[in-house]
Amino acid sequence: MSSASNESTWHEGCRGYWYTTSGHGYCSNATNGPSYGYWTNYDCDFEIDEQHHDNLYSGYVGKYDTYECTFEINKTTVSPSSV
Questions:
Q1: Beta carbons within 8 Å of 59's beta carbon, 6+ residues apart
Q2: Which of 78, 9, 14, 81 is nearest to 43 (CA)?
Q3: CA distance 30 to 58
Q4: pLDDT for the residue numbered 17
Q5: pLDDT for 26-71, tens place per residue?
Q6: What is the pTM of this model?
Q7: Distance in angstroms (rounded) separating the CA atoms of residues 33 and 57
Q8: Contact 64, 33 (CB under 8 A)
Q9: What does pLDDT average to over the chain?
């Protein structure tokens, strides 16, 4: 059975969650959109880390991005972008 872990802080209304092999970004109230967006970083254990950029509308609530590592994920972090 796997349990969720999450970033301790919210970044412009969003943060990362991860399980054993998968991670996703989640927003409670996105405030960095729609012009700038968010970087979601997936820290995989045995493979190249993955980074996704998503533009979300202001006030977005819910899961917005996901990635599955082959073996294990160490963490998922979210940061607001300025481009």
A1: 29, 30, 31
A2: 78
A3: 5
A4: 97
A5: 999 999 988 899 999 999 999 999 999 999 999 999 999 999 999 9
A6: 0.91
A7: 5
A8: no
A9: 94
Spatial contact of 42 and 23, defined as CB atoms under 8 Å apart: yes
Closest among 47, 53, 58, 61 to 79, alpha carbons compared: 53
Task: Please choose, from the candidates 28, 54, 57, 52, the residue with its C-alpha nearest in 3D space to the C-alpha of residue 41.
Answer: 52
Residue located via tokens 């481009």: 83
At 9, the amino acid letter reads T
Judged against a pLDDT cut of 70, whether residue 2 lies above it is answered with no
What CA–CA distances, in Å, run from 52 to 9, 10, 33, 65, 75? 19, 18, 15, 8, 14
